[in-house]
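Model it.
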Amino acid sequence: MRKTKKKYIKLRSKMDINITYGIGEGPTKICAFDRALYDAGVGNYNLIRLSSVIPDGAKVIVEKINWNYKEQGYKLFVVLSDCLETISGKHAYAGLGWITQSNHVGKGFFVEHSSSSREEVKKIINKSLKNFQEYRPEKYGKIHNKIVGIKCKDKPVCAVVCAVFKSEKW
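Modeled.
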């Protein structure tokens, strides 16, 4: 009987989706939002918000990026969670949660939530994604999340978590 070598095929993702995040403070709400986007590495893009569907074959990577000067003014397709706060002493928390069919790879879903409490954001992310799974026949893996927050002192603040799908020229 002849021995044959087993071939192992490395699964490659069709696309990477980066989860990036940032916080910011500024003299106005829009300035705080812009600073948070800049901190997340996507401050110089025109954001186009997507709904929450992760395409089959995608790989979700949690990694803060710095694309601020990569492609000035390009379109950037994102799922975005943001939270603004203007009251001194209060917090702003933004979070994205996701499920995929395998560990960070394959089709799945994002949810975006925000609140004045980290625990509340995590709770509603879990509740939403568990509900998404109740009426779908596919099996999904563990619920993942990325949550960031900032405390308002005397200026408006913003927290953002952004799932970056791709950029595109106009």
